[in-house]
Design brief:
Blueprint: H1 7-27, H2 34-47, E1 51-55, H3 58-68, E2 75-79, H4 86-93, E3 97-100, H5 112-124, E4 142-149, H6 158-167, E5 171-175, E6 183-184, E7 187-188, E8 195-199, E9 213-217, H7 220-229, H8 252-262, H9 265-282, E10 290-291, E11 299-300, E12 306-310, H10 313-325, H11 355-363, E13 364-367, H12 375-386
Parallel strand pairs: 2-3, 2-4, 4-5, 5-8
Antiparallel strand pairs: 1-9, 6-7, 6-11, 8-9, 10-12, 12-13
Helix pairs in contact: 1-8, 2-8, 3-4, 3-7, 9-12
The structure holds pyridoxal-5'-phosphate (PLP).
Pyridoxal-5'-phosphate binds next to helix 3 and helix 4.
């Protein structure tokens, strides 16, 4: 059994994949070929945003979004510590400072009340309200924006988050690397923030065969700036350089692969719902010892992961080992919250600063999840988990 089985999907669409790749080999426009624009148009339509800008990875998508807002030294960007390193890494890469905010224990996403407290803490320099990163007293941080993460494919509480960012005049970047295909109040993920960012890393809900990503926005100026930034800050042509940018394009071949995969994507999202519902049904009845995922009524998850909470770290370890002995792969996303990662030592956060994130990190366990997971396999997994 695979944790994420990409072979079954490939067998289904192998002819289409080969035809699309061959097309690229024939026309030879490997950089910014016609497939890139075709994919951008298709995904902008799917998400319901005016602009889609393909880029080299999900990490670059978030980096480009921050660069479009001219984020740099002295800027504070609020985000969750219970996420993949990319989300906060790009903030520091630009010389800005991540300000961490604890999560909601049911959804694992940014907790709006904690966000409000963190913004107020920064504005009033009151660490009793919320832990703050340590910075030299001579350089007070300026609140600029928020990066929300739709962890495991579940959209965050955008209605609450948006009222906070509007109140404090912050921008909202949505890290939808795991939630492409999800919905929030009837609108697709990537359309909830000022800029939505997703990843096409192979294991994500819509994955290519390498690295890729995309930014979505309704704002013409932001779109134009991101288009420039992804090609070395180009102006009217690539030898006209108007700003510092990056080499951040999406490869034509990856776009061609994604076009083939996108044809069956809506169906795969449906299949994921079925797999998740089956897990939750099979695992019901032991809810006092194992917590299955909560999906708020106005949300639809893309089910990038199906993650359960064990009673405590010891129980998680024994559950993971038991499953491993039966050749069932599992994963821990994420074992250490970002505020405790050595790379962020310089921010001087400490253990206990974000108790919900720390607790979830010690109890979380992701089970095999993909659209083609068989019911028989799910039954076996459930039996082992329950025994
Ligand atoms: C995967 C992921 C990213 C980064 O995407 P890449 O395409 O690997 O660069 C960013 N944020 C989250 C939450 C992710 O899961």
């Amino acid at each position: 059994m695979e944790f994420i089985d990409l072979d079954i999907q490939q067998k289904r669409i192998r002819d289409k994949l080969e035809a699309n790749i061959q097309n690229v080999l024939n026309h030879g426009r490997y950089i910014m070929g016609p497939e890139v624009k075709k994919l951008e148009d298709a995904l902008a339509g799917y998400v319901g945003m005016n602009h889609a800008i393909g880029c080299a990875s999900g990490t670059d998508a978030i980096l480009l979004a921050l660069m479009a807002y001219n984020v740099g030294p002295g800027d504070a960007i609020f985000t969750t510590p219970f996420t993949f390193i990319s989300t906060a890494e790009v903030i520091s890469l630009l010389g800005a400072t991540p300000v961490f905010v604890d999560i909601d224990p049911n959804t694992f996403n940014l907790d709006p009340d904690s966000l409000e407290k963190a913004v107020m803490a920064l504005k009033t320099n009151d660490t009793l309200l919320s832990p703050l990163p340590e910075t030299p007293a001579s350089t007070p941080l300026k609140p600029r924006g928020v990066i929300s993460v739709d962890l495991f494919g579940l959209p965050a509480d955008y209605q609450s988050l948006k009222s906070i960012v509007e109140k404090h005049d912050l921008f909202l970047i949505q890290d939808a690397a795991q939630s492409f295909g999800a919905e929030y109040k009837g609108r697709r993920a990537c359309s909830q923030g000022d800029i939505g960012c997703t990843s096409f890393f192979p294991a994500k809900p819509l994955g290519c065969y390498g690295d890729g990503g995309m930014c979505f926005t309704d704002d013409d100026n932001l779109a134009y700036t991101i288009q420039s930034l992804r090609i070395h800050g180009k102006g009217s042509n690539k030898y006209d350089n108007v700003r510092i940018g990056i080499n951040g394009r999406l490869d034509t071949i990856q776009a061609a692969i994604l076009l083939a995969k996108f044809e069956i994507f809506a169906e795969e999202i449906e299949l994921r719902q079925g797999v998740a519902e089956k897990y939750s049904m099979l695992l019901s009845g032991i809810n006092d010892r194992l917590k299955t995922p909560t999906v708020p009524e106005d949300c639809r998850s893309a089910w990038a992961q199906y993650s359960v909470l064990a009673e405590d770290e010891l129980n998680r370890t024994s559950l993971q080992e038991k499953l491993k002995r039966e050749n069932i792969p599992t994963a821990i996303y994420y074992p250490k919250p970002l505020h405790l990662q050595p790379v962020f030592n310089c921010l001087c956060y400490k253990k206990g600063d974000f108790p919900v994130s720390e607790k979830c990190a010690s109890m979380i366990l992701s089970l095999p999840m993909h659209p083609y997971l068989r019911e028989g396999d799910q039954r076996r997994i459930a039996e082992i988990v329950k025994s």
